[in-house]
Amino acid sequence: MQSNLNMNINNDLAKLLLRITCAGLLLFHGLFKIYGDFQHIKDMVRAAGLPEFIAYGNFIGELIAPLFVVVGFKTRIAALLIAINMLASILIAHTDIVLKLNDYGAWMIELNVFYMMTAIVIYFLGAGKYSLSRCIGKWE
After folding, report:
1. C-beta separation of 15 from 125 below 8 A
2. Alpha carbon 91 to chain centroid distance?
3. CA-based R_g, the chain, Å
4. Which of 70, 90, 100, 125 has minimal CB crowding within 10 Å?
5. Hey, how many other C-beta atoms are within 10 angstroms of the C-beta on 111?
6. What is the DSSP secondary structure assignment for residue 131, as one 8-state letter?
7. In the chain, alpha helices (H)
8. pLDDT tens per residue, the chain (140 residues)?
9. Following CA atoms 88, 93, 95, 98 in sequence, which dihedral angle do they give, to the nearest 10 degrees?
């Protein structure tokens, strides 16, 4: 019995750390876009032949959804929004470097893929016990 309790605590702690790592780090990107050059995002969206208002979805994927994931509220849907945002960033802004490596041998889109894949893992795992909603509901 004690072993199962420890395993559950470890699983919930791992979910919390994964949420903080993925969404907490992604928040910096969202904040940068608020205080930095958001026009650059609009220009990339327009250059891809899409309406400029789609650029504002970036705030959902890099600011609002990560906040929800960090605190553990509507975690699964928020994680899915992060994954979709990262896929859109690859398709809109990074198609020319998808198959390229940087000067150090790393995949040039590895950060985008990291955020996308960890968000997908969070989607499948859910928030865990250490969350605002404490595993209540379908999207937690």
Report:
1. yes
2. 16
3. 17
4. 100
5. 16
6. S
7. 2-19, 25-35, 39-47, 57-59, 65-71, 75-93, 110-125
8. 556 767 778 999 999 999 999 999 999 999 998 888 889 999 999 999 999 999 999 999 999 999 999 999 999 999 999 999 999 999 999 999 999 999 999 999 999 999 999 999 999 999 999 999 876 666 66
9. -90
